[in-house]
Amino acid sequence: MPKKQHKRTPDTMLRSWLRRWVWSKCCEKSYTNRREGYCCEHCGVKNSRAKGKEVRVIVHHQKLINWDKIFKVLRRELLVSPNQLTCLCDECHKAEHKRMKEEA
Question: Is the pTM of this model over 0.85?
């Protein structure tokens, strides 16, 4: 019987999750917004939700994000082959991490 291929999480989904769950809630982004008073550093316009006067100020990376590099690290360290994964209860999982740290 041939081996069943597992599905691979698409890069588009990874990018979306990273933007939604990591970047949108990170301390660095919040700090930058507060530091600049929620204002655009180029023109000075302030973030506004006022009806008819909506302006969105976005925290921008000054260096281009290397998504391919991020995806490679995620796939190497986190999104590994199912052959490298095991199902464990909380207690056994904690014990396994303790054992692995002691062996490292």
Answer: no
